[in-house]
Amino acid sequence: MTPHDPTPATVDFDVDLTSQEVLRRAQVMAALGPDWDPIEVLRGEEAAYDLLYSGLDAEQQRVYDELVAAGVLPARGSGRAAA
Length: 83
Known about the structure:
- The protein contains 3 helices and no strands.
- By secondary structure, it is mainly α.
- 1% of the residues are buried.
């Protein structure tokens, strides 16, 4: 950079966050506790989605189908919202 050049010089800057990430993950697992069951959590989420998309009227079902077709919502089961 010359004295009359307004362009600032760039400097490479690297930070290794490996140890902080390991600590963060350990703290998350400690906060979840020994009784945390990820499989049961997933089952609960599936049940919640089933309930959320159940009992849709014809217009709601049409919008749901459009959102699934557009990739906004994931396809579930038979491709129809739960009855």
